[in-house]
Amino acid sequence: MLTRDTRDPATRSRLLFTLLALALLWPGIHFSELDLSVLVASDSQSEMGRFVSAFWPPAHGEAFIELLLQATLQTLAIATAGMALALLLAVPASLLASRALSLSAASRAGHPSYWGQLLRWPVRGLLIFLRSVPEIVWALLFVRAVGLGPTAGVLAIAITYSGMLGKVYAEIFESVDQRPAHALLQSGSGRLTAFCYGILPNVAAELLSYTVYRWECAIRASVVMGFVGAGGLGQQIDLSLRMFAGGEVASLLLTFLVLVLLADQLSRLLRWRLA
């Protein structure tokens, strides 16, 4: 009589994968010098308690609310202006880095020629360089170059996010059916026409969704860059922390939380409308 084997055939591979993950995790914890015992130390708990207790009540004076509103608008302006500048570079760079509009690929069943690939490598290398350096590092460099203020934050977001947007846009262009664009190219249409009618209708929703997501990330990044003097809510949080003004820090953090929630809801709304 045949009996059914109830053992999971993937048990051994899962066990080996778990052991490998633990073996790789331990050196990471060791070299990062992670020490969780400081969180339960009595001195740390008392100091954290005093720090958090200073957050209540949040500051709500008329002068501070006016300053808070100005910092919030500046944060939004930094993120929006940085994204606008990033798009100016990302859109043409993504078209050059993608093989979706390659003339050689259109005539060779989607496979670009060697020279076509070679010409795209410098553009892809530029996008890799732009996105490999974090925006906080660019902000530090621009603060030294142009001084304190939102200009450094705008330029930092523009450079880093142009690399991110350009890479993802190029991949999105290549992920859809390229035959309509190739047919337009072979019939004598220009690349801009082939893009507008052969590629863009299929990727518009995904492009907009990713762009709004990156704008949300830019809002968070602009706050972080404020700690190095790039303006906005981050710079005001840094100043309030230096003055041990816990109530002001609480109000600033709550404002930042509301800002991110509103950006997330806007992103959800746009994705729902375009679905």
Automatic annotation (TrEMBL):
The keyword Lipid metabolism does not apply. It is found in: Cell membrane. One of its GO terms (biological process) is transmembrane transport. Keywords: Cell membrane, Membrane, Transmembrane, Transmembrane helix, Transport. The keyword Transport applies. InterPro entries: MetI-like (IPR000515), MetI-like_sf (IPR035906). It is a multi-pass membrane protein. GO terms for cellular component: plasma membrane. Residues 72-267 form the ABC transmembrane type-1 domain. The chain crosses the membrane at residues 76-98, 136-159, 243-263. Pfam families: BPD_transp_1 (PF00528). PANTHER family: ABC TRANSPORT SYSTEM PERMEASE PROTEIN P69, PHOSPHONATES TRANSPORT SYSTEM PERMEASE PROTEIN. Belongs to the binding-protein-dependent transport system permease family. This is ABC transporter permease. The lineage of its organism: Bacteria, Pseudomonadati, Pseudomonadota, Gammaproteobacteria, Pseudomonadales.
